[in-house]
Amino acid sequence: MSGGRAVGSGMLGRVITMRRYAGPEDLRAMQSLTERVWTLGTYCHIGDQAWERTHIGGREAEWPTAIWEDGGQVVAWGWTFLPGGLHFLVDPARPELADEVLRWFDTVAETDERSITLLDKETHLRAALERQGYRLGDSTVHNDYMRRSLHDLPEPVVPQGFRVRHIEPGDLSRRVAVHHAAWEPSRVTEDSYRAAMETWPYRSTLDWAAEAEDGTFVASCLIWLDGRNRVGLIEPVGADPRFRRRGLARAVCLAALGAVRDAGADQAIVYPVRGLAKAAAAAPLYENLGFSSYARTLTYVRR
Predict the structure, then answer these.
(1) CA–CA distance from 43 to each of 31, 102, 173, 212 (Å)?
(2) Can you tell me the distance from the alpha carbon of 280 to that of 243, in angstroms, rounded to the nearest whole number?
């Protein structure tokens, strides 16, 4: 690990230390806090971190990241998206560390305009942002946080000529191809998707595709399981534009949701974007699948 320094006194007289992110092993350290404090009022899920950190390669230089620990336990982290964006998480039992993370962010940001997105329910973080001079922005674009119980999940109805199944060895190139078809332009490569597959808590049994008779993957749904909190996160879902409006995205999502239920989850969450034309179809899909809103993101800015 690199860049460690003492920043203050923790509970029971322990010293809180801050260190810079040094490599993939530190992602698991960050996830340990996310997993430990996760609720429906938390901005991120362990699957967010795994997918965001790995699915596009070569971006580490754009992401100055720091981790705060108390007695070996992670109590806060900050993840910068240069030039001026930040994701951060602070243990709700240690709200004073939010100001420390924001002061650190000031030392690494490369622009005078800063933007931080968090969940409306994270009041301890919103208070710190206001103390540090941030104000609520006026953008109409936001993520709608939606959930659904998995206890009454319907069986998928697969259109004739297709089947749904989870990813197996040898599927990597087709898995990347369907992602590109759905998300063009995309910077995902076989190497970067392989990195995602090698990152905890990825499971191939929770990575699903709809397959045509000729073997082409035409839609996909990846779910990440937080077993401690029994919650699955859908991230991402996509369908090849040539095969949309046939019920394939719905079928592959239901198959993946059934798999995460069987793996131990009792609820699933997803974060479609509202207010963006190219993402307009996402939220209605999840509503049709039985998801309902429980929170939304807010973006704070400082200029």
Answers:
(1) 13, 17, 32, 36
(2) 18
How far apart CA 169 and CA 36 sit, in angstroms, is: 32
- DSSP-based three-state secondary structure for 204: helix
Asked whether the beta carbons of 102 and 84 are under 8 A apart, the reply is no
287 φ/ψ angles, rounded to the nearest 5 degrees:
-60, -40
248: left (phi over 0), alpha (psi -120 to 50) or beta: alpha
pLDDT of residue 3: 57
Whether 73 contacts 100, CB under 8 Å: no
- Per-residue model confidence (pLDDT) at position 98: 98
Structure tokens belonging to residue 135: 């104000």
pLDDT of residue 13: 47
Give every residue of the chain whose pLDDT is below 50, as ranges.
1-2, 11-13
Residue with tokens 């951060």: 88
Structure tokens at 113: 């305009």
Helix (H) / strand (E) element for 175: namely helix 172-183
Pairing of strands 217-226, 207-212: antiparallel
pTM, entire model: 0.94
Is the distance from CB of 1 to CB of 38 less than 8 angstroms?
no
How far apart CA 133 and CA 86 sit, in angstroms, is 15
Q: What is the DSSP string of 95-152?
A: TTHHHHHHHHHHHH--SS-EEEEEETT-HHHHHHHHHTT-EE---S-EEEEEEEESTT
Residue 213's alpha-carbon distances to 156, 161, 162, 164, 204, in angstroms, are: 18, 6, 6, 11, 21
Number of Cβ within 10 Å of residue 221's Cβ equals: 28
Cβ–Cβ under 8 Å, residues 202 and 196: yes
Backbone angles phi, psi at 10, to 5 degrees: -95, -170
pLDDT (0 to 100) of residue 50: 98
